[in-house]
């Protein structure tokens, strides 16, 4: 169970996410946006009213140039 904060904020949660997923996720959405995107996904997944699936970033163009 998460440790409860007493200052009126949402309790902190811990997730175990490998660096090879967490780092590129931060690069794609911005280090300070990861929590927002995860929350948006959870709301959409749970079918909350008005929730929308977060927009995916455009993948980098990995095709070689001629």
How would you sum up this structure, described in words?
This protein is mostly helical and 66 residues long. The protein has a domain at 17-56. 35% of the residues lie in helices and 0% in strands. It has two helices and no strands. The chain has helices at residues 19-29, 34-45. The N and C termini lie far apart (54 Å). The model has no long low-confidence stretch (mean pLDDT 85).
What descriptive keywords fit this protein?
66 residues, mainly alpha
Give a brief outline of the structure:
The chain is mostly helical. The protein is 35% helix and 0% strand.
Question: How would the blueprint of this fold be written?
Answer:
Elements: H1 19-29, H2 34-45
Average the pLDDT over all residues and give the rounded result: 85
Unreliable sequence segments: none
The largest pleated sheet is described as: none
Rounded to the nearest angstrom, the distance between the terminal CA atoms is 54 Å
Q: Helix/strand-derived class?
A: mainly alpha
Shape: globular
Strand content: under 5%
Residues in helix, %: 25-40%
Number of strands: 0
């Amino acid at each position: 169970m998460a440790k409860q904060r007493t200052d009126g904020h949402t309790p902190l949660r811990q997730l175990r996410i490998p660096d090879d997923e967490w780092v590129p996720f931060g690069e794609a959405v911005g280090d300070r946006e990861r929590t927002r995107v995860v929350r948006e996904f959870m709301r959409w997944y749970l079918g909350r009213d008005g929730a929308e699936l977060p927009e995916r970033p455009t993948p980098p163009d990995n095709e070689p140039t001629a």
